[in-house]
């Protein structure tokens, strides 16, 4: 099944085949999504002697976390909880009671990466009450909010939060509120046939070792789900913005905002609210990777171009991290997206009168009209603070992004003329206009 051109499909399959052969992966599945629909599936290797298909299940590991996070954000949108609530308000009795829901979602709570005891990914899990009873002060590794520190334990606690607020197992919450509405009926907490078996590949010989697979109890929310290429393609479309009735688009956009970065000044990788972030060749990608013993998976979506990519493999390690991004690059090189056609719109006379240059002190800015009475204010020279604004019922405009996100822009008419008041910053039609209400006044002798 392919909705890409033949030469594109060949290039994509070649990249997948190289990965499967050179990285020695028992089986490898991949897909590309464009405008919410599957554009290409690719498969290499064998599962029980046959090539994998769009319906073959693989374990997806930590991609589970994003699905749990969506269910938590639904609670927030319903008013059941606030992201600034401490965990103790909803799950009392843990040593992590002071950390907030937002910190747990963004891995900034400072909790240990793994729960106490044996390596949870290779051993059967305990129920939530046993997990919580075994936690002590040693689970805190960093001051909450100080830094990014990935925590599987944190998502185990979020799974219990879901269970308590909905009065049902968290797996049922995610299934009923997220997976089924998206048509992801082949995404399950336990494997179903046909599914790939997980293997470790010997580092120096072409032989396999079966990896263990268990129900991980309370830790399952950190990475237990199984899914298929077809289902995960629907998830890639969701992350890219095709939310259906599951989540408000504004909430998903909030989840994709960087809450923290995990690679310092470079900011090539970061984390939002249950969603990993990456910058790649001018793209800003959102998604998540997943790994469990015997399995690797990754989903990335680029909302700006409305494309997504995924791969799924049944090997503990070895798949190159660049694979998914390489597939996106191949698609862009062979079939670059066309920009939307420009069509004329409409603008009210009162807004047209505001367009053009404005000055914040000596700095020139340009005001443009956007659809539906929106405005954009951008520095004329490209350097400075730029924001878009949306009209409000009271006649003001609310900042959507940049420095002025959440701030109010007012158009003020006075006997001296008109000026813009942007949260105490005054913009006038002339640089330091003598008749304008410039804070601190303007030198009476003017420019010289």
Beta strand %: 15-25%
Weakly predicted, low-confidence segments: none
CATH topology of the largest domain: Beta-lactamase
Structural class of the helix and strand makeup?
alpha+beta
Shape: globular
Give the name of the CATH architecture of the largest domain. 3-Layer(aba) Sandwich
Using only C-alpha atoms, the radius of gyration works out to 26 Å
Order of helices and strands: HEEEHHHHHEEEHHEEEEEEHHEEEEEEEE
What strand order characterises the main sheet? 2-1-12-11-10-9-8-7
Q: How is the biggest beta sheet arranged?
A: 8 strands, antiparallel
The total of helices stands at 10
Helix residue percentage: 10-25%
When the domains are counted, the total is: 2
CATH superfamily of the largest domain: DD-peptidase/beta-lactamase superfamily
Q: How many DSSP-defined strands?
A: 20
What oligomeric state is this?
Answer: single chain
Whole-number average pLDDT? 95
End-to-end C-alpha gap: 71 Å
Domain DUF7586: 348-429
GO molecular function, one term: hydrolase activity
Domain Beta-lactamase-related: 20-326
EC number: 3.1.1.103
Would you give an account of this structure?
By secondary structure, the chain is an alpha+beta fold. The protein folds into two domains: 6-334, DD-peptidase/beta-lactamase superfamily (Beta-lactamase); 349-427. It contains ten helices and 20 strands. Strand 19 and strand 20 form a beta hairpin. The mean pLDDT is 95.
């Amino acid at each position: 099944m392919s909705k890409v051109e033949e030469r594109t499909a060949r290039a994509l399959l070649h990249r997948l085949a190289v990965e499967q052969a050179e990285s020695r992966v028992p089986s490898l599945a991949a897909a590309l999504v464009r405008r919410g629909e599957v554009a290409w599936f690719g498969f290499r290797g064998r599962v029980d002697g046959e090539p994998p298909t769009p319906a073959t299940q693989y374990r997806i590991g930590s991609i589970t976390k994003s699905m749990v996070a969506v269910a938590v954000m639904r609670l927030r949108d319903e008013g059941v909880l606030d992201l600034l609530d401490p965990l103790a308000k909803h799950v009392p009795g843990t040593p992590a009671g002071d950390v907030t829901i937002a910190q747990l979602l963004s891995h900034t709570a400072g909790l240990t990466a793994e729960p106490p005891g044996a390596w949870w990914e290779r051993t059967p899990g305990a129920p939530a009450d046993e997990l919580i009873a075994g936690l002590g002060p040693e689970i805190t590794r960093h001051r909450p909010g100080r830094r990014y520190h990935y925590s599987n334990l944190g998502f185990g606690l979020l799974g219990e939060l879901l269970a308590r607020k909905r009065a049902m197992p968290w797996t049922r919450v995610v299934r009923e509120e997220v997976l089924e509405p998206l048509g992801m009926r082949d995404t399950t907490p336990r494997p179903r046939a046909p599914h790939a078996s997980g293997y470790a590949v010997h580092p120096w010989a072409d032989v396999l070792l079966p990896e263990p697979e268990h129900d991980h109890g309370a830790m399952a929310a950190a990475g237990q789900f199984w899914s298929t290429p077809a289902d995960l393609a629907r998830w890639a479309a969701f992350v890219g913005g095709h939310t259906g009735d599951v989540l408000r688009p504004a909430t998903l956009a909030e989840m994709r905002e960087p809450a923290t970065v995990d690679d310092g000044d470079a900011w090539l990788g970061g984390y939002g609210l249950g969603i990993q972030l990456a910058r790649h060749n001018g793209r800003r990608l959102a998604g998540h990777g997943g790994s469990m013993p015997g399995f690797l998976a990754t989903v990335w979506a680029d909302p700006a171009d409305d494309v997504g990519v995924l791969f799924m493999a049944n090997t503990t390690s070895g798949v190159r991290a660049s694979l998914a991004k390489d597939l996106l690059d191949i698609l862009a090189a062979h079939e670059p997206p066309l920009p939307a056609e420009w069509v004329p719109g409409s603008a009210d006379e009162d807004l047209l009168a505001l367009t053009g240059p404005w000055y914040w002190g000596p700095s020139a800015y340009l005001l443009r009209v956007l659809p539906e009475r929106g405005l954009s204010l951008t520095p004329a020279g490209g350097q400075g603070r730029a924001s878009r604004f949306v009209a409000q019922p009271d006649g003001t405009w609310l900042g959507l992004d940049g420095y002025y996100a959440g701030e109010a822009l007012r158009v003020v008419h006075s006997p001296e003329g008109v000026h813009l008041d942007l949260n105490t910053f005054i913009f006038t039609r002339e640089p330091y206009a003598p008749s304008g209400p410039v804070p601190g006044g303007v030198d009476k002798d003017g420019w010289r």
